[in-house]
Amino acid sequence: MRTTAARVMGAATLGYGVAVACRPEVLARPCGLAERGSSSALLIRALGARDAVIGAAMLAAPEGGGLRTAVLCRVAIDAGDALLFGTLLPQRTGRAKAASAALVWAALCGWTLTSDDRSAATLVEDATNLAVRAAQSATRADLL
């Protein structure tokens, strides 16, 4: 496991989560959602709090099984976000942006779990290709 990289990803996740919880427009704007005064803002704040907590867990978990579990939770959360945002957001561009960002983040966090020489760039490329296919599928479904 790449412990230092996992801790860095945890710190970034914590920072992003706090930013989203404090300013929902950080996530709302790229997704094409209402930024203020709506139930979307409330739910986005909840997502920010969720991300901040999992980021803190990635920073504080003991090396080994605890850290691995925290990172696996982050990967699973991002995969779920990619699926939901990538298929259910109202605008095609928002779906593509959100799914891509979530899958890239999942790939980077997943990379921290590896101990081989597989580069992060390969995982990011794979995740990006998957995000593009998901967005294209969602677009085709809108046309039906």
Descriptive keywords:
144 residues
**Count of individual beta strands:** 0
Computed CA radius of gyration, to the nearest angstrom = 15 Å
Total number of helical segments?
6
Mean residue pLDDT: 85
Beta content comes to: under 5%
Order of helices and strands: HHHHHH
Structural class: mainly alpha
Task: Describe the global form.
Answer: flat
Helix content: over 70%
The main β sheet shows up as: none
State the distance separating the first and last CA atoms: 44 Å
* Contiguous uncertain segments of 5+ residues: none
What can you see in these coordinates?
The protein is mainly alpha-helical. Helices cover 81% and strands 0% of the residues. The chain contains six helices and no strands. It has helices at residues 3-22, 25-31, 39-60, 65-88, 92-111, 120-143. α3 packs antiparallel against α4 (65-88). The longest helix has 24 residues, at 65-88. The chain is flat. The termini are far apart.
Write the layout of secondary structure elements.
Layout lengths: L2 H20 L2 H7 L7 H22 L4 H24 L3 H20 L8 H24 L1
Question: What's a quick, concise take on this entry?
Answer:
Helices cover 81% and strands 0% of the residues. By secondary structure, the protein is mainly alpha-helical.
